[in-house]
Amino acid sequence: MRFGSFLELPTTNGTTTTQAYERTFAHTDMAEALGLDTICLAEFHFTPNRVISSPLMMGAAIAGRTKRIKVASSVLVLPLANPLRVAEETATLDNISGGRFEFGVGRSGFQVAYDGYGVPYTESRDRFSEALEVILKAWTNERFSHHGEYYNYDDVCLIPKPIQKPHPIIRIAATSTDTFPANGRMGYPLLVGLRTVPLAQVTEQVGTYKAAYEAAGHPAAMDVSLRVPVYIAETREAALNEPEESFMRQTARLKSQLTGPTSELSAADAKVRAERLKSLESITWDDVRREKVIVGTPEMVIEQLKELQEALHVTEVVAEFNAGEQIPPERIDRSLRLFCEKVIPAFR
């Protein structure tokens, strides 16, 4: 398996914007030194206490100070941007990083960013599909034209082209049940999470992805990345108790986000949101520990990862070391070090 760190750049507990960037760079330097495979950067807009509205710019800064670790978008919200501009900037980042860029994309389950940009959330599915089509054309053709519902280009030439051929890895985030087999048929690597969906449901969804992937006869091995909160300490008591407040804070925030207005959602998206909210309504720390996070000593974490690897066919684990943003920096560093030195070797 491969292993990464997922970063949202919070500015909680009095942290300034500058300090959030500095801590991110320090974390990235430590991750590279300890042998972590990937740094994954979120995208947030108009969200208090998040300073990651430009993950590609942040990725370029990280690429410039590192030599080995991969830089991934996790995920870029494609419907919010001009796809030709996204193709230019991602190709530039692939060049700057020496081919270390991974293109994680999605359409986001929350509409606050859509409202801010004036993009109807009801258009998000179709915009996403068309944007991805444009980006692939731009990356892989010397010149191309495109005339679609939302985007139109005539005989344009993307400069530069990506270093990676035919293009960087494209990983699609999936939460809606119908997107799993669709992604499997197309053969795209998958990104899944456990934040708002029960483990049993994710297991079933990944099963439909696997069946569709194998039925399509794709030559490459299946690739499933799991994003999950992780907390590691030397003792069981510390590992189970210390992250509770922070991890439950994340759960409470998710519930709050899911209670927003649904007038801009399609019937299918509104149904998905209602199902996610229901699964979180009466959730306890014991519930969260059981299937939404990975916490424990290194030995406990290894066993939990093995179970998830088997259930979800996981090939990559991307750890959220500060889910809920209340973990002190020294404890984040401890988790990262134990993760890299005590856990990862069990999967190499």
> Radius of gyration over alpha carbons?
20 Å
Number of domains: 1
**Oligomer designation:** single chain
Number of helices: 13
For the largest beta-sheet, the strand count, sense and barrel status come to: 8 strands, parallel, barrel
Kindly name the structural category: alpha/beta
Q: Could you name the CATH topology?
A: TIM Barrel
CATH superfamily: Luciferase-like domain
End-to-end distance: 7 Å
Order of helices and strands: EHEHEHEHHEEEHEHEHHHHEHEH
Shape verdict: globular
Identify the CATH class.
Answer: Alpha Beta
Number of strands: 11
User: What is the residue-averaged pLDDT?
Assistant: 94
Which architecture per CATH? Answer: Alpha-Beta Barrel
Placed side by side, the strands forming the largest sheet appear as: 1-2-3-4-7-8-9-11
The residue ranges in which pLDDT falls below 50 over 5 or more consecutive positions are none
Overview of the molecule:
- This protein has a single domain (2-347), classed as TIM Barrel (Alpha-Beta Barrel), CATH 3.20.20.30.
- The protein has helices at 17-34, 55-65, 83-96, 112-117, 124-140, 179-186, 199-216, 236-241, 244-258, 267-280, 285-291, 298-312, 329-343; strands at 2-7, 38-41, 70-77, 101-106, 144-147, 152-156, 170-173, 190-193, 224-232, 294-296, 316-320.
- It has 13 helices and eleven strands.
- It is 47% helix and 17% strand.
- It is α/β, with parallel strands linked by helices.
- Helix 3 links the parallel strand 3 (70-77) and strand 4 (101-106).
- Strands 1-2-3-4-7-8-9-11 form an eight-stranded parallel β-barrel, surrounded by six helices. Strands 5-6 form a two-stranded antiparallel sheet.
